[in-house]
Amino acid sequence: MKKSLMLYLFILAILMNVFTYSFYSGEVKFAQNRYDKTTKKLRDSISLVKTQLAEADYFSLEHNENAQNYFDNSASGGKVILYEKLIPVVTEKLLDFNANPKGNPYTGQDQIGPNKFIINKVKILNHRWIIADYSNGELWGEVLLKYFVDNDDNITFEVNQTWLYQK
């Protein structure tokens, strides 16, 4: 009787070990599959975001080699203007006009009411064009500007087209 009890307990212990092993190995496979699926989703998301960013930056001086080459006049004996340094200078120069008491003249809008129009966001598209967002706190608009850099590194702007959105 004692031997058969020990035999039953031994068989029961073996069965418990087999079931425990199969449960934990299945759990490890499940966790690995879930990890693999999550990793694949994240990689796909990162790839999608990179593609969207590349599409969004298509029209930018930073990614337009032809526009960058426009500032390289070394072949004709001229000087080279580094676009990496030009972008913040042009942006800062344009935003400095926000201090004008009548508002930034390069919004293409006259002051409406007590608030002046100022430029909030600037995107340099290439060697000639800038798009900017402006507002007076109540009304919002966008402006397309031309900019020029002369031989003395003076920067001038010209309003090409402006659009003021309705309230």
TrEMBL record:
It comes from the Bacteria. This is Hydrolase.
